[in-house]
Amino acid sequence: MNACRLKATSVLLVLAAVLAPRAHAAWSPTGAPVCVAPGAQHDPVTSSPYVAWLDERDGVPQVYVTSISPWTGDLGLPVNGLHAAPSATAQDQLALATSSWDGSVFIAWSEDRGLGTGRDIYVLRLLGGAAAPGWPANGLRVCGAPGDQTHPRLVLDHPHAIIAWDDARGGDTDLFAQDVDDSGTSMPGWPADGRALVTNPGADHFERLLRFYDYYAGVDRFVLLWSNSRRILTQVMQADGSLFAGPDWPATGRVVSDSAYVASAPAVIDAIVQFDSRYLVAWLEDHGGVPQMFCQIESVSGYNWFPKTLPVDSDPDARPSRLIWTYAQQDEGRLLWQDRRADAGDLYESFIRLPLPSNGAFFFDEGTAPRIVNPGLQGDATEPAGTFWTDDRSGVPQIFSWYVNLSAPYEGAVAPTGAAQTQPSSSTYAFGYIPEDPPPPVVVWTDMRNPATAPDIYAQNLGPGGPGQSGVGDHLPTRVSLSNAIPTPTRGTVTFTLRLPAESDVMLDITDVTGRRVHSALHQRMGAGDHAVRWNGLDEAGRRVAPGLYWLHGRAGGEVISRRIVVISD
Fold this sequence. Notes:
Layout: H1 10-18, E1 23-24, E2 32-35, E3 41-47, E4 50-55, E5 62-67, E6 74-75, E7 82-83, E8 91-98, E9 105-111, E10 120-127, E11 130-131, E12 140-143, E13 149-157, E14 160-170, E15 172-180, E16 195-198, E17 205-214, E18 219-228, E19 231-237, E20 254-255, E21 262-273, E22 276-287, E23 290-299, E24 306-311, E25 320-329, E26 332-339, E27 346-353, E28 363-372, E29 378-379, E30 388-391, E31 398-403, E32 410-413, E33 421-426, E34 442-447, E35 456-463, E36 466-467, E37 481-482, E38 494-500, E39 504-512, E40 517-526, E41 529-535, E42 548-556, E43 559-567
């Protein structure tokens, strides 16, 4: 490797530890085996670079986990995975989240260990291939209340890990949550068995839990999306577990669907529009046996709410099912769904114009466009971005992909075989990376190719040349690029990676949202290769800057470059 390439930063060292190859999978045209142990392996979930699944090699389903390099396919934990939290009882309903702060991974699941309380919620933090310091080796029970606790949801906001779940301690299912820190200790003010968030009559069932950054308030918030009595509802939780209050935000939740119809299949995504934090909600309503799609936009800060519900597709022949937001940024959102108007299921997409503070416009643009229309069933598209899906056009379900960020657009089977492939899962990479040169996307699935051990877990990447191609190269970059901030949001120092194809003059400053210079980050001539650019969160006078939105902005190699930095309070 060229000597002037970046050798070490604290975050890159963490990344190297996470992905240190102890078992080699290696990408191939038919995919890489992640786990081929005896017994059934199924229900994989991903939070890149980690993969977790349920494994029955010892009789009852248990949580196993490994890490996989998106570039090489190297596995970073023992062959066939690490037994995460050994127990004698069945574990299921996995949730997974990777910390961009230190590369550790949090796993949550539901399990009845025969303690007389029914199904409880457990969580474990793994760091360096073992339970992190302070964490029980077989998992931390974050809720042991009577009645069943199921369907955990998990989001991270360093040093917080928010675990939310459906809770039947009162008879009907309600929504509860717990907040633990990196050591597994409940955050101050949170009850031992979790905090009740929503306790409506009837059954409340979590659909989505999403973290947002509120640019107005300069804090993180958490969007709750759930169903109750055929309706879709939403609320916003503060970091201390309290909910938004006010006429537009009842404690029972704001109903976004039409209560006259049965609503289902909600999807949600965040959207930053001119520094206003918003989120988009889409759902299905059953209108006389015909499913119809609707959409609404909300503001995470509670301001500038646009109480307008839009139908997504006016075609009377449309038969939508599962919905996925594939993109939402600035003034545009994109919604993907499975549609049975022509056969067992195709993939369609609609484009939405988001309301700007200046005009409040909110409408669908360009209508509906078929993305993938082929014989057989196309469905189970993965989140985010709908990059991968299950496709049985050949008569056997295979994992397909449609991806445009390669050297050439690709659509087709990612690991074609004659055996069934199901349950695809993919995720965005948790570490900051260079947007112009991102890690290749990776998908994992349940695979039936090995009769002696099936079902197994396999994976595939989409490298620069297509499926199974390595994303690693030792050559110098061909153009100037700048990574995302690591970490972000931040309470202190952030690091960027600047890539230069040739020796160049570099002038980079930290600015606030008005464009005012806060700090001179880098003003010098630099050689070709990769360089670490750091900012410690201080202004020119050595004072810590106020929480808010900042930018690393300037020129390198004659090109204008900028990246966003979100600073939050301690």
